[in-house]
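Field log, afternoon session.

UNIT: design team B
ACTIVITY: writing a sequence onto a fixed backbone
BACKBONE:
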């Protein structure tokens, strides 16, 4: 049961990314970030608000989660969407999901954790996978600049920084629904502030095509978050976390099935995504 819920969560996260890739044909990444985040926030608040508990939660912890919501999902998602338009979601998504590597390296550097066989193996696999994704492929007619691969890598770094801080945050905010709602609230407030102060709201493309596709992306991501929390409620992190790390595999499979007119999934992309996915699973599985 727990495994099924976790895999379903990974699947819905991947579905959200596929809808964004389709929607980017109608609007720039900023519109994707704004509409999809609004959809995710709406779903999260509607489904989790009834279960929010402020008992034993500190105001500092709530503010921490609001700040982390700016880093990830907001900023990391913006970087992912910006790179998706240039290199394709089948390349960008696996690189974005190298966050466990950064989380592990930061733990070694600042938390005194030691290098283990699992950490070395996961690191090597992720580096190999990233190298494959960065290679040009004669089977893929789509040209791209490798510099755009830096964007999802920065997004992964933000996710890697956010991960241990979220773990620490649970000592301040024991209510997972409250932490998740605060996370989305922080991201939405930062997004609205940016759109207002920079005047970027004028550049948003809000019409039926974008609301439908980006809205479905946000809805799917929200369902993924809800299922992830459900899995953690009925299962353990050691089972749930590695299965959530399979999101890039679902993304690549769905890309091959439904994005043929947008991008081509080559053998190098498939192998690179599989290596990153396996490396992430190893890092997360042996972390707990």
């Amino acid at each position: 049961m727990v495994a099924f819920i976790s895999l379903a969560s990974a699947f819905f996260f991947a579905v959200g990314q596929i809808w964004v890739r389709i929607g980017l044909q109608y609007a720039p990444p900023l519109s994707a970030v704004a509409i999809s985040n609004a959809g995710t926030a709406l779903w999260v608040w509607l489904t989790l608000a009834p279960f929010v508990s402020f008992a034993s939660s500190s105001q500092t912890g709530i503010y921490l989660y609001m700040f982390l919501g700016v880093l990830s999902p907001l900023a990391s998602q913006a970087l992912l969407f910006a790179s998706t338009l240039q290199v394709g979601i089948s390349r960008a998504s696996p690189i974005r999901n190298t966050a466990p590597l950064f989380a592990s390296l930061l733990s070694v550097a600042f938390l005194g954790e030691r290098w283990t066989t699992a950490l070395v193996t996961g690191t090597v696999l992720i580096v190999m996978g990233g190298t494959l994704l960065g290679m040009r492929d004669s089977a893929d007619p789509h040209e791209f600049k490798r510099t755009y691969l830096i964007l999802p890598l920065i997004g992964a770094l933000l996710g890697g920084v956010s991960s241990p801080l979220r773990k620490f945050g649970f000592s301040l905010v024991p209510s997972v629904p409250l932490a998740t709602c605060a996370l989305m609230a922080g991201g939405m407030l930062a997004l609205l502030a940016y759109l207002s102060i920079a005047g970027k709201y004028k550049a948003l493309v809000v019409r039926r095509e974008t609301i439908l596709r980006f809205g479905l992306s946000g809805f799917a991501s929200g369902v993924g978050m809800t299922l992830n929390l459900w899995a953690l409620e009925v299962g353990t992190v050691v089972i749930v976390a590695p299965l959530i790390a399979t999101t890039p595999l679902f993304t690549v499979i769905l890309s091959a099935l439904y994005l043929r007119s947008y991008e081509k999934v080559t053998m190098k992309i498939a192998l690179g995504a599989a290596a990153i996915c396996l490396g992430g699973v190893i890092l997360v599985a042996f972390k707990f």
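LOG NOTE: Residues 2-285 form one domain.
NEXT ACTIVITY: expression trials, pending approval
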